Amino acid sequence: MTVSLDQLIAKHHESLVDGIVKDAIRQIPAYGQAPLQKTVDRVERFLDALAESIACNDPDVLEEYLVGVAQERKQEGYAIIELHAIVQLAEEHLQVAIQEDVSDTVERNGLLALLQAVMGAARMVLSVRYVLSARAL
User: Fold this and answer.
1) Tell me: the pLDDT tens digits for 13-36?
2) In sequence order, which residues have a C-beta less than 8 Å from that of residue 60 and are 6 or more positions away?
3) How many alpha carbons lie under 13 Å from residue 25 in its C-beta half-sphere?
4) Of 31, 53, 90, 127, which cross-links 62 as Cys (Cβ 3.0–4.6 Å)?
5) What is the pLDDT of residues 72-126, one digit of tens each?
6) Which residue range is the domain that position 63 belongs to?
7) Domain with 119 in it: what CATH number?
């Protein structure tokens, strides 16, 4: 049985959100100071945009979400490293879900490679957005 990354995100959505939020609060000072529900909502929206982008095979879905997030977070005083950390935490939790859920080595490796590529693109979008907005100042 083949599982897609968006299906895996949907299957583990609640535990992914819980794990990412807990790690974000422990590891990223700004997220530790933010209201819990706000952090939960943000992680849920990120995972939803990620899953939709993958399901639709449309990287613009995730990029549009991330562009908005970068602008919003920058105005709130978040540093780019904090946004990269959220992407990293999500990637780590998704890697664990893939490792635990997918027994076929080829399928597992394919999902891990896809995840790495998508999250690398997410980090790039955030970085470019921060650079462009810094130049506009």
Assistant:
1) 999 999 999 999 999 988 888 899
2) 53
3) 14
4) 53
5) 888 888 888 888 999 999 999 999 999 999 999 999 999 999 999 999 999 999 8
6) 5-136
7) 1.10.490.10
